[in-house]
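Q: How would the structure tokens look for this protein?
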Amino acid sequence: MKRADPRVRGLLERFGVPAEALAGLDVVEGQGAFFIGTREVMTFDAVRPLRRGIRFCRVFPRSVKPTTHAMQVLGRHATRNVIDLEREQVVGLINGEQVEVDAPAAVEDGYVLLRVDGFSAGVGLYRRPVLKTQLPRYRPVEE
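A: Here is the predicted structure in token form.
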């Protein structure tokens, strides 16, 4: 990764993800977000895609929000602001509930990586002691 935008570096620092985790990936800003992908994906021009790579974070005037997809990919490198959850807590979050969590003191309020059974499940918003889901919502399949 070339010299990253300060917003991207800040997000990596928040989660303790070393910049080397993005080695070999390009980071591109556009459509109100930063996208990451391999050089081949980012330069592929045989067809005109809607977007290239995966959305790393959404950009807002005063903040950036990490995406679940990016954190599922990069979460294995995270060493900070990670909350390990029990399966029952994850089910509650998926059902739209807020969950009270007794996170370690080192976990800061704000966006956190949600992990269950060692798997990086996605992003949550933590305001001690309440955790809210930031996992993408999908419509249930009608049978």
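The chain has a mean pLDDT of 86.

The beta strands are 25-30, 33-38, 54-59, 64-66, 82-85, 99-100, 110-116, 119-127, 130-133.

Upvote if useful.
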